[in-house]
């Protein structure tokens, strides 16, 4: 519970209607989309503008009260669950698109804008915002930036980091800084913009962002390629790249995933295939046609037993929507869904999928795998039950082995979900102790009181997952 | 002069042939390509591998000896001139392309590889490394990364930062870390890769880099558009972008620059034009043809009095080579050439060029302007004489006003050259005192003894340019 003096100060800054500390509110902000992590904050605070954020941060810094900045809570790394009480900062008032600058191809936004609204606003003027995390319908851009969210278009277009040109940041001491600008080039000092992208809210609060837009691709085509075995699908991915084609989307789904997605979406997905590639290309029509013809040929050369090109925009949208529903579909099957994102160099996908299968077999677990084959970003997803402590112990062991395997193949413990509390105990596998030490020293330098999202990413101590029932 | 104990330790690590401290050597490493900055180091050290770099850094950290990592010294911000003696670290032995991975589209390099060799090695296998700083024929990739170098393709393809996937870094304490990898997505911890890109050697020594390659564009076309006035050229730039075309290159040259480049290159450049745009598009032939036709139309619509499309590859190469020679051509005219890179949002180019003209007029200085119009990155270049102290004082005042104007227009004090010693006194204009304070705290955290390239970018004290004759 907040000390009454602190609560009084916060009320004076944001108004009584923007501080909540009743039990229902605290419970609502006690968890995010990550299974098995939950802890109560002391209050929810909803500032209305940057000045109010700065005021709140100053009070918290003075009283050493933790701040957890939170968007829609769609993250899968327990990045927005409280760990030591404090306040959860939400951006329901700071949710405006402030400007679309068609001459400089930028959009300036507040952190609470939904990702999908950014894309739609860009499309309305013939422009495009490529990053499309799976949760983009409800995720907020502030969260996307803090997690450096990826998505289905990462191979060709990159990730959130590649579309943020500048930030307004409230530092942990309450001072406000501006980084970057409407600038394609800017090397004035350390790259604070990119340091804050993916910092998971541990270095300050992002209160504004200048996003880069690009011309909208003229057209798009979508196809499914079906395989009897996984290696053939992986070889196709390699063959496409070897032919110097970079598709907009190159998704992989294993049979188990296709089956549950079909049960959920009922659009006639090929449940008989052992592996499916969902491939999209966008761009000028001549190029899309040429690329898709070549890709179809490469799929067949690499033992696809069927290739289905979507005939209409609706059919194409149905296919990508089905892929996007994978997590929702999977999470219907068992009480607890643990979705990971071990990532490897593209060339190692077949080995990684095979290793996941063997690890699942070893621990007798139900793990489906789908993900972004084009950029090696896989989502092994375990269907389990958090109440079954014996099984959960096996799940922990299995994922640790999966992370070890990913790093051994030149990969990483997380491609797009972030570290948060979830993968804190595994960060050393990728970053090494000296790397973590460098990160800790930066954290300590910027946030000496440790108020910003404590217990995430680089805290010294290991994790003990809190066993709570899957929401 | 190095203490004999220190020198002995360094000799033991790298061998006697890789430590030089005779006067001729010290003089050779006392300056870079920046006019009017010069100071002697105590020694030049050339390590042969990462272990030797780590050993050297440990010795220097123990004895608090400054280290200035240096590529070819082509930078224009006095980023590699010594300030407090110490050693200049050069990479003549660490100059190998270690691997080209065609499946993952990466190239792994040591810091001493020439940028041009990277591009050529990529082209040899049908791939492409887009960043092309003006000095790419002789610049080294380590320097490019440390300065986050830009170039002529920034608008469409981005800058060095966008093509570095991972680094090997020797920290100031001598420990070696690996960041990133052959990975399109990686969010395991703070983005140390991007923090080190553009850090100007102030946070450690880069000893290896994994670069991202892309498929080589199938074809390229080049044209010149000639204008009676500057505004028309600037309006053309806006019109091209408004038509959702992103050219590979969109360069601006004022009449004075065209004149000196023609005097130098003698290829028949249009010296009668008040402003010239050099425009290139690359990609699939259909798209290049369509874009170039449209661009030609837009140039004419916006009052270009002539548009010249290069008829052959040789003619096109001659044009871009002429543009690349601008600095060399300009520096023949007067003893001292001071080339700056104030950068503004693309929409503000006309205002900025006009302001530069007015400031030159006010101080009665000879300032030519050319640069990357597509990304707002201009290079106002003052032809002067460092021995003329009265004029140099005016030059200082003029550039300060130019930087203020750039920032007032939403721009930055440096788009691609870096801060170094040269722009240290102006960094606050862009980053603000609180921004600089955040940067200083990071520097202090990572390099508590202040050994890495001291006196650059964010040192507390203002600069006094050292008056030395232009080399």
Short description:
The structure is a homodimer of 471-residue chains. Chain A has 471 residues and is of the alpha+beta class.
Written description of the protein model:
The structure is a homodimer of 471-residue chains. Chain A is α+β, with helices and mostly antiparallel strands and 471 residues long. Among the domains of chain A are: 97-215, Uridine Diphospho-n-acetylenolpyruvylglucosamine Reductase, domain 3, CATH 3.30.465.10; 219-325, Alpha-Beta Plaits, CATH 3.30.70; 334-417, 2-Layer Sandwich (Alpha-Beta Plaits). Helix content of chain A is 36%, strand content 20%. Chain A has 15 helices and 18 strands. In chain A, the strands form four sheets. Chain A has a seven-stranded antiparallel beta sheet with strand order 15-12-14-13-17-18-16, sandwiched between helices. The first copy, chain A, has a five-stranded antiparallel beta sheet with strand order 5-6-10-8-9. In chain A, helix 1 packs antiparallel against helix 3 (50-63), helix 8 crosses helix 10 (285-301) and helix 8 runs antiparallel to helix 13 (349-362). Mean pLDDT of chain A is 94; it is low at 461-471. The interface between A and B is large, with 91 and 91 residues. Chains A, B: InterPro entries: FAD-bd_oxidored_4_C, FAD-bd_PCMH, FAD-bd_PCMH-like_sf, FAD-bd_PCMH_sub2, FAD-linked_Oxase-like_C, FAD-linked_OxidoTrans_Type4, GlcD, Oxid_FAD_bind_N.
């Amino acid at each position: 519970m907040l000390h009454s003096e602190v609560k009084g100060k916060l009320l004076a800054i944001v108004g009584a209607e923007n501080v909540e500390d009743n039990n229902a509110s605290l419970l609502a902000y006690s968890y995010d989309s990550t299974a098995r992590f939950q802890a109560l904050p002391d209050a929810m605070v909803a500032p209305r503008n940057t000045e109010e954020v700065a005021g709140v941060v100053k009070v918290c810094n003075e009283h050493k009260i933790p701040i957890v900045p939170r968007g829609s809570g769609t993250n899968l790394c327990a990045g927005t669950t409280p760990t030591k009480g404090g306040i959860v900062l939400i951006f329901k008032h700071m949710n405006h698109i402030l400007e679309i600058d068609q001459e400089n191809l930028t959009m300036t936004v507040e952190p609470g804008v939904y990702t999908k609204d950014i894309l739609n606003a860009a499309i309305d003027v013939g422009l495009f915002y490529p990053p499309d995390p799976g949760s983009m319908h409800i995720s907020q851009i502030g969260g996307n930036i803090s997690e450096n969210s990826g998505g289905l278009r990462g191979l060709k277009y990159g990730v959130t980091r590649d579309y943020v040109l500048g930030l307004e940041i409230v530092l942990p001491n309450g001072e406000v800084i501006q980084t970057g600008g409407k600038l394609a080039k800017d090397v004035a000092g350390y790259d604070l913009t990119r340091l804050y992208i993916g910092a998971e809210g541990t270095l300050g609060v992002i209160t504004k962002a200048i996003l880069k837009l690009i011309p909208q691709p003229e057209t798009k085509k979508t196809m499914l390629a079906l395989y009897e075995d996984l290696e053939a699908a992986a070889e196709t991915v390699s063959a496409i790249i070897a032919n110097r084609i970079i598709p907009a989307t190159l998704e992989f789904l294993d049979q188990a995933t296709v089956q549950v997605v079909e049960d959920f979406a009922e659009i006639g997905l090929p449940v008989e295939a052992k592996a499916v590639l969902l491939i999209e290309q966008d761009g000028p029509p001549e190029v899309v046609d040429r690329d898709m013809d070549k890709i179809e040929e490469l799929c067949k050369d690499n033992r696809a037993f069927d290739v289905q090109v979507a005939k209409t925009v609706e059919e194409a949208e149905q296919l990508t929507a089905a892929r996007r529903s994978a997590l929702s579909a999977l999470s219907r099957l068992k009480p607890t869904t643990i979705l990971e994102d071990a990532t490897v160099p593209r060339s190692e996908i077949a080995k990684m999928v095979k290793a996941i299968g063997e690890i699942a077999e070893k621990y007798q677990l139900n793990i489906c795998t789908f993900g972004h084959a084009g950029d090696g970003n896989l989502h092994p997803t375990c269907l389990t039950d958090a109440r079954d402590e014996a099984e959960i112990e096996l799940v922990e062991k299995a994922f640790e082995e999966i992370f070890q395997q990913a790093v051994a193949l030149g990969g990483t413990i997380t491609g797009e979900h972030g570290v948060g509390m979830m993968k804190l105990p595994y960060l050393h596998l990728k970053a090494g102790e000296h790397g973590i030490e460098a990160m800790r020293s930066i954290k300590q330098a910027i946030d000496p009181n440790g108020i910003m999202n404590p217990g995430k990413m680089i805290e010294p101590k290991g994790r003990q997952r809190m066993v709570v029932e899957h929401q």
